[in-house]
Design goal:
The protein contains one helix and ten strands. It has 160 residues and is mostly beta strands. Strand 7 and strand 8 form a beta hairpin. The longest helix has 10 residues. The chain is elongated and about 55 Å long. It starts with a strand and ends with a strand.
């Protein structure tokens, strides 16, 4: 089976119902760590006052390889609370399984999930709110001259 590459774009829209875990009161300053197969992106931090219902409207891209060695195709969205004087607090996470979505994109040339809500769960699997994201996957078209990367140097078949 040949390996196919592509680009996944994640549109991080908003979250709702996030619990305020600040010990001294005040609001939470949430941000999201987006993780896919060793790739990690970080959203901007929403300041207190909007913390329980943050709006991001930010887009992030990830490289996709299919099939993967381990067969894991999941996007993890970890919601964190930024703290200035201590370690950031974990608010919860949502996991989106993407295997069928990627397969659909390979079959049709593109796949899209319009922004929808996913449940955010805490480390004890209890409901902690919801996050809204949209996802697009576009397979990369094979080019006539595929490049191969060797330790930072690129060599092209064109010059061989």
């Amino acid at each position: 089976m040949t390996t196919t590459f592509g680009i996944m774009e994640v549109n991080l829209v908003s979250a709702r119902g996030l619990k305020n875990n600040e010990f001294w009161g005040g609001g939470i300053d949430p941000y999201v760590l987006l993780q896919y197969r060793g790739q990690e992106r970080k959203s901007s931090t929403v300041r207190a006052g909007q913390g329980s219902k943050p709006e991001w409207n930010e887009k992030f891209t990830f490289k996709i390889e299919y099939p993967s060695v381990d067969g894991q195709y999941k996007l993890i969205l970890k919601l964190m609370d930024h703290d200035t004087f201590s370690a950031d607090d974990y608010l919860g996470e949502a996991t989106i399984y993407l295997k069928e979505f990627i397969e659909l994109g390979l079959e049709n040339g593109k796949a899209e999930i319009h922004p929808k809500k996913y449940s955010v769960v805490g480390s004890d699997q209890s409901y902690c709110g919801e996050i809204q994201v949209g996802i697009t996957f576009t397979p990369k078209k094979a080019t006539q001259y595929e490049e191969v990367e060797y330790g930072g140097w690129k060599e092209s078949d064109e010059y061989s």
